[in-house]
Fold this protein.
Amino acid sequence: MPVWLRLSIAGAATLMVGMGIGRFSYSPMIPALIEAGALTETEAGYVGAANFAGYLAGALMAPLMRRYWGEAGTLRICLLLSLASLFASILPWGFIWLVLWRGLVGACVGVMMIYCLAIATRYAPAGKLGAATGITYTGVGVGILLAGTLVPWLLAHGLAAAWTGTALIGLAGASVAFWGWRAAGPDTAAPAAEGREPVLPKLKWTSTVIGLVSARTLFSLGLIPHTIYWVDYLVRGLDHDMNFGGWHWALFGIGAISGTYLWGRLADRIGFRLGLALAFGAVAAGIALPVIQPAGWALVISSLVVGAQPGLTAILSGRFHQLMGPTRMAEVWRVSALVSTVFQAIGAYGYVSLFAVTQSYAPLFLCGSAAMGLGAVIAIRQRTPYADSAGTAP
């Protein structure tokens, strides 16, 4: 097997463990946790928000971890910590216990999202870059699909069975990831001779940079309602059973698996500027639709379209590359990741507080839709290359 393919599979398995299972398996459990009295509605929301706060911590810690353990070594550590979080969640020790472990797995995801793609793209040969990133992103969708399929069935046997099942799936994924990372060469070793990486690279904040960073931040804010409340809305808000919620979470995973390819193909055909605006608009409609018209067809469309959001991320990264060029793209992408993660962590607690006050799902989803809609406006207005008004690149 080619090294690039093995490392892409390792990246997919790592993201499956950390994000697909670690982050997204919690959403279909929320109704059961509330109904069983393990968490209150507000506590369940705050546990979900802790994952976003942990993501911020992980993104900030990633350069320091890389300096000590290298990229592949850092990913192995994050896999072990993610597994510890999954197994620790089995213990019914209440709200604070879950906040700590959900925050830890969120931190691991913050690191994984940086270095899985860094390794996959570095080893991808000419003509295989799209395949490498696509395979790596697929791990998220596979994890969501498994969670949506298995969690409702496991919940019939109790919360402990559901937590144990997800932890065992994570263990299987981690085994594949460890096998794959053994192919990592010296490029991923700890860079002892390198200088310290700045947390926020120095950068000229032109209107183009501000627009790109804003678009990514709005995407992060818009995605929160479905990430935390989608299955809860279906089960407790619309009075469906857990199997119905799990089926829609599986559709969410199918959308995630297919989204990268389908949105990427669209962008190749009509251009990344228009493709990104259409992707933002489609996801905005998918978020708002189920609270405006909660019919069965609307729920299916919402699960598939919003689930396909990894494809929007892929188009967004391509748009960064187009507007910034290959030399500036990396630093602006990293700054945008840190800025969007800060706002996502704050926004997650804001959404939970909004739900606690209103006891209504509609404001949450409409706010998420508005954020995505504003992202579409920014995307369609981004025309100029990375240069100031005089035409001089910073």
